[in-house]
Amino acid sequence: MTATETTDRAQIPVTVLTGYLGAGKTTLLNRILTENHGQRYAVIVNEFGEVGIDNDLLVESDEEIFEMNNGCICCTVRGDLIRTVQNLMKRRGAFDAIVVETTGVADPAPVAQTFFMDDDVRKAAKLDAVVTVVDARHVLQRLEDTAEAEDQIAFADVVLLNKTDLVGVEELTAVEARIRSINPYAVLHRTERCAIDLKAVLDRGAFDLDRILSLDPHFLEHGHHAHECSPDCDHDHHGHGHHHSHDGHAHDAPHSVKSISLTAGELDPQMFFPWINQVTQVQGPNILRLKGILAFKDDPQRYVIQGVHMIVEGDHQRDWKTGEERVSRLVFIGRDLNWDVLKQSFAACAAG
Ligand SMILES: Nc1nc2c(ncn2[C@@H]2O[C@H](COP(=O)(O)OP(=O)(O)OP(=O)(O)O)[C@@H](O)[C@H]2O)c(=O)[nH]1
User: Please, what sign has the CA dihedral across residues 332, 334, 340, 342?
Assistant: First the structure.
């Protein structure tokens, strides 16, 4: 056995899971956490928005979940992510592989870079593949109005073209052709609710550094960063033309996407459902994502609501635990949303 082979085996494989807001990353992660694949995964979740909801939307499992919700992953990539991986490495016997779920608005490059740039991380972990989940229904629109959707596809080693149930055959063919025009190299699978043999996604040994360097010749250079950051992030700001600001309750992201978090106590379902239907009908085009965990009066179970544009679905999740505070939390991520109106009208859904 050569020295290289020894090093390779000592490195823990890392899958970077990316895809635009609402594409189906958590759906895939839940499969990874529940299916019987014989591997133990440590999961690192980065969340956009103030109220930690993504963690609550993951199924309960024995796997380890680490949440980093201090905003855009690009801003924390050389800090939190490195520290999280280093901490994980102290207990490396406890798991076989790592999955990093990135925020829906992030460019995956800084996440992938971390596994090449930091010496300690590089010794311990090896980028296995970038897996990009694509929402077949909304991706063409996203490619028009954002840069991240294209970056995520360009970077992919594996693409899951998801939500095939929401489009017709012709549209699906057109979407697939568009993805192929951005990235002809990735292995592409069509999926519904990310149903796929996980062998197609995990432990692929697929990350192709040469191809990434041909896309981005500066990929391995320290301080190189093709993304917009907040003024208070701690990384090197060479070559930055833009800033986004943080103003208390709303977080800016590229292309004026903002998130707003609303909290209330118990809600009256007779008030809430007509309200959310009306909000998504009227403001749907601007709502990239909504998610919430709700406490309805006299309902022993937590209710989870999720949406992308006008498509909203909800279901009971599990019983509220004894001692768990029955609060309702709702996050909207979108453009040009009227925060004050949303806040007030949500508050009006409180159970009397
Ligand atoms: N109709 C349909 N809905 C889907 C499919 N896959 C996922 N969904 C739904 O789409 C919504 C978003 O799915 P998630 O898995 O939470 O998406 P995500 O990429 O993790 O979302 P963010 O973390 O907000 O970026 C949820 O309501 C899912 O139930 C699918 O194939 N078809």
Answer: negative
